[in-house]
Write a structure and sequence with these properties.
With 163 residues, this protein is an alpha+beta fold. The protein has seven helices and four strands. The longest helix has 24 residues. 12% of the residues are buried.
Length: 163
C-alpha cells in the first residue's frame, strides 16, 4: 500500500501488510542478542537468560556478580545519534508516543535494578558490528571470568608418577 493510500485510511485502521510485518518482530533471542551471548560465552562468562523476577527481564544476568546486560535495538529503544533510530513517516504521533514510552520504561527498569543493587550495562545493536571493541567494554564491565575446573590448572589434579 502506498503512502497516499495510508493517509486515506480511517482513524484506527492499520495497513494489514504493516501489521503482519510488526507481528514478526521478536522481543528476545534477536540476532544482536544471540551475537552478544555467543561473544560473552566465548570469553568464558556464564549467565542466565531473561530472569522474570528482575525488573525489565534483562537479556543476560550474572547473579554472582550482581550484573545484568540489556541488548537494545537502536530503533525501538532510541539510541541517540544512531542512524538506525529513525522515525517512520506514517503515523508519526503514534510512533513518537511509543518511542517515548519505551525510553521512559527502559530508564525506570534500569533505576529499579540499580536500587536493588544490580549493575546495568546496555549493548546497542549498532555496537555489535565491532566485536573486538565490544568484548573490551564487556570485559571491563564484567571483570575477569570465573575460573572453571577445566581452566583452573593446566596440569592434572592427581599425579600417578609418584605412586
Amino acid at each position: 500500500m502506498d503512502a497516499a493510500a495510508l493517509t486515506k485510511m480511517p482513524a484506527g485502521m492499520v495497513d494489514p501488510a504493516r501489521s503482519a510485518l510488526m507481528q514478526r518482530i521478536r522481543g528476545k533471542n534477536t540476532k544482536p542478542e544471540l551475537l552478544v551471548r555467543r561473544l560473552i560465552h566465548s570469553m568464558g562468562y556464564r549467565f542466565r537468560l531473561h530472569r522474570r523476577d528482575l525488573p525489565g527481564r534483562p537479556d543476560l544476568v550474572f547473579p554472582s556478580r550482581r550484573k545484568v546486560i540489556f541488548v537494545h535495538g537502536c530503533f525501538w529503544h532510541r539510541h541517540l545519534g544512531c542512524k538506525k533510530a529513525s522515525t517512520p513517516t506514517t503515523r508519526r504521533d503514534f510512533w513518537q508516543t511509543k518511542f517515548a514510552q519505551n525510553v521512559e520504561r527502559d530508564a525506570r527498569k534500569e533505576r529499579e535494578l540499580q536500587q536493588a543493587g544490580w549493575d546495568v550495562f546496555v549493548v546497542w545493536e549498532c555496537e555489535t558490528g565491532d566485536l573486538k571493541r565490544l568484548s573490551g567494554r564487556l570485559s571491563e564491565f564484567l571483570g575477569p571470568p570465573a575460573v572453571t575446573g577445566k581452566q583452573a590448572s593446566a596440569e592434572p589434579t592427581t599425579s600417578f608418577a609418584s605412586e
